[in-house]
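Structure ticket #2291
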Amino acid sequence: MASLAAFTARSMLTDNPRPFGASVVHTSSGKQLVRALNAVRQRCDPSAHAEVQAIRLATRSLKQLSLAGYTLYTTCEPCPMCMSTALWAGLDRVVYGATIADANRHCNQIQIPATEVAARSDMTCVVDGPVLRDECYALFTHPRMLRAFRLWSPRKRK
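Resolution: structure written out below.
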């Protein structure tokens, strides 16, 4: 998780800072297969979350749909779409840093915990977190990220 947070933090030095990063790692060996950042704005694609990007890269890299034997690490608790994608991909485990509540302080979130999505599925996947929450939440509070959040579309609140 520390290396993923460091990888994601490097985006703070760019014109497109992003606090959401994800990596797919072989569960047994710990060898990293792929990593990705959120690309929603860059691709004009609301599904281009970091977790989905990493899962897409991993399945293409392996040339198979199943990621059984792999773990997804993510700097923020997966939203329901990302957690569902992890389940459909057959990942062994999902490990997250910051929580959905942490992210919701700065940008809109669907506030359904990843553990609830996993529990309501007939597919199995261990969900662990928060892990290194402070380090991952620091990505959301970096001055360049806070400036970017202000430039993004206004938050819609009920």
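Closing remark: The CA atoms of residues 4 and 87 lie 21 Å apart.
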